[in-house]
Amino acid sequence: METMTRKKRQPMSEINVVPYIDVMLVLLIVFMVTAPMLNQGIEVDLPQANNEPLNLDENLESLIVSITANGEYFLSIGATGEDRQSLDLDTIALRVGQIVSANPNIQVLIEGDTQADWGVMITLITTLNSAGVTNPNFITQPSNEL
User: In total, how many domains does the chain have?
Assistant: First the structure.
């Protein structure tokens, strides 16, 4: 009778990391290509201010109303910036009113171009107030002066 000698298998103590490196490089390339596309919103030259940053809750949804230099209004919900067509004040009042009534905790932010007419800004603020927005905040960029 032959005795079979079995080799005792030992666990492999090496991990092949080459496939993980390949996956990591592919993900790196994907993120490098998509990162420039994440800059969404309307191109607005924001005014500078020395104010302290607002303590906004990042978990709450935000509604951004943009005013361009030539007085056009744009509405962006959250960080998506889906609606990129110019809207008139009546449409903004209607949509903002619906959004605020559905979500009273939404943060309303206004970003206005430095070249925008001050009257256009006041008209927007009164329109937002009539739509139910009690305390809109302005988006500015930090001042370069120290």
Answer: 1
